[in-house]
Amino acid sequence: MSHYAYQKTGNSLDLDVDVVVVGSGAGGSVVAYDLALGGLKVALVEAGPWRDPKDYPESMYGTMRDMMDAWGALFARGRSILPIVQARLVGGTTVINSAIVVRTPGDIFKEWRDEHGFGGDALAERIWTYQDQIEDELKVGEVPAGSYGRSNALAEKGARALNLHDHAMHRNVWDCQGTGNCLQGCKKEKKQSANLVYVPTIMEKGGAVISCAPVRKVIIKDGRAVGVTGRFVHPQTGAKGDTFRILGKKAIVVAASATQSPALLQRSGIRLKAMGEFFRAHPGTNVFGIYDERVDMNKGATQGWSSTSLRESEGLKLETLSLPLELIAGRLSGAGHTLMERLQEFPYIAMWVQAIRADTVGSVRTNIFGEPVVRYSLIPRDIQRMRIGAHALAKMQVEAGAKTILPGIQGMPYRISPDEVDTILDAPMDPRNWFSALTHLFGGCVMGSDPDRTVCNPNGEVRGVSGLIVSDASQIPTTLGVNPQHTIMALSRLRAHQIMDGEIGQVAPAM
Amino acid sequence: MVWLWKYCMGVLYPSGGGLPGILETGVDEFLRDYRREAPLLMRTGLTLSSIVFILTPFMTVFIPVPVFFLSAKLKDRHANKLANHPLYLVRQTILLLRLVAGLCWGKHPQVRAAMGMEPLGEAPGTSRGSS
């Protein structure tokens, strides 16, 4: 079959397939790939365009324009405003993430079993088996020494001094060249993102890829999901094109992200008590260290070091993150000549971040246009976690030799000396004082055994609608405390096998 | 509104200390592209951010006139105080202006050269067509 990009008025698209998959990121690409390999006729429908590595921008302006959902202007609203990092192109966020691969921790399956009525050892075994396969497919390996970069090396040094170094970073990057461009998409084609690994195979196996095609609604007839519909959007001008309608005989799989999937189901008229509820995330903040020698953090892997040694005790994940100069310019505080003086230090800065396994619970609703509105207000317990994480990062910076620490917290001094890092433990508790972003999102269409507290049953099937399956982070009822890509992919493989085995999917209408 | 955006960004990112200011980094072309390409929400946000920047010297340097009438030194002090303002919403409003200006300033070859960094490649904006 084919790739259908933007279709102008007068070129409406109608397709009939076995399974329609909405969203081509970590969840949708794997489901569609497995179903296509299994001989089913698949249509993979993506809201954004299909950009090949030659199309990737190198600037952050280009990245926001060409790759981000809503130009990166999607926010969670609450006491503070938290940017949400999500991509909108074929391959989804796998194109612009740092390619970190972490297996689903064993305690997660116990938590799912004890608190949500599914999971346990049997699911763990199945998921880990799939994760073995996915690691082979994505050529997962350790960051090579030659592309480690100084920021990552300093982080490891600082962490080792504090006994916080617990594992080598694994990423779905093959033969990394250390260009530091993970966030803009890897033009060297080293990152094994879904658009390079899974999507081409879907087409080779006869599947259709429909890009520039934001799905407006799932078509539901007599309690059965039978297709999706929407209108093409031009990738450059944003102009509306003609409509598309794609029918799926066996199943409609929604994998549009933890913000877009609940919004799509709400637009489709599905009314469930838990719809859009239990939205969770790993909010992140950063700490800068300034060194005497150049760090050049944009040389080397964008995120080449991480630690989960504080995951169980404090709910923290520590890691490096090399933001490009364009974003740092907006991130350092101050303006005018003060800002310009601070920017001169950029080559000497190492930026390290924490992601917290937050207890905060938010929601995803739709506005009058049907677009997602995310509400999320960090609770004091999570701010306390941030204090502990920022303190740990600052101590690592000191151990690695930083001469100055920039905590990046409003209400604290711009700079603190190495012997002042303990003051971070008394940092303001108001979330508005913390510069934070949401990177890993969960929930909104959560699965579980309690019909009153879930949107999906434990197999990801939307309650009350036959043949409608959720297969992305929105089904996950908890945070993970690790990067979720690997878990999302493995759950999606599970869903694909369940569809092929007839365990889930369309129930034949009553005669 | 390009002139207003440019004026504000010029105060936020002046030249100094061996680094070019934003007015030396092709900001006119950048803002023309931004006006053409950015979604309405982003353009409106930038305009609101600029208006707040222009009208709030009374909150920072305690002089009730628009920024245009301040001396260079007072403009600089206003910009810095606004960026660190204790009121969250004020601070956030200016953040958008700073972020968008940073996208222009930080990608310019002259700035990158001053930092000892390689120039960036293109952002072609292209995508795969139907096949």
What can you tell me about this protein's structure?
The complex is a heterodimer of chains A (511) and B (131). With 511 residues, chain A is of the alpha/beta class. In chain A, 26% of the residues lie in helices and 21% in strands. Chain A contains 13 helices and 20 strands. Chain A has helices at 26-37, 60-66, 106-116, 120-137, 150-161, 194-197, 199-204, 260-267, 311-314, 325-331, 337-343, 380-400, 485-500; strands spanning 3-4, 13-22, 42-45, 75-77, 81-83, 141-142, 170-171, 208-210, 215-221, 224-233, 240-254, 280-290, 306-307, 316-320, 349-356, 363-366, 372-375, 404-406, 437-442, 468-470. In chain A, the strands form four sheets. In chain A, strands 1, 2, 3, 8, 9, 10, 11 and 20 form an eight-stranded mixed β-sheet that branches. In chain A, a hairpin with a 6-residue loop joins strand 10 (224-233) and strand 11 (240-254). In chain A, helix 3 crosses helix 4 (120-137). Chain B has 131 residues and is an all-alpha fold. Chain B has one domain (2-114). Helix content of chain B is 60%, strand content 0%. Chain B has seven helices and no strands. Chain B has helices spanning 2-12, 27-37, 40-55, 57-60, 72-83, 88-105, 109-114. In chain B, helix 3 (40-55) crosses helix 6. Chain B is globular, with a radius of gyration of 16 Å. The N and C termini of chain B lie far apart (40 Å). Classes of the chains: A alpha/beta (511), B mainly alpha (131). Chains A and B meet through strand 1, helix 2, helix 10 and helix 11 of A and helix 3, helix 5 and helix 6 of B.
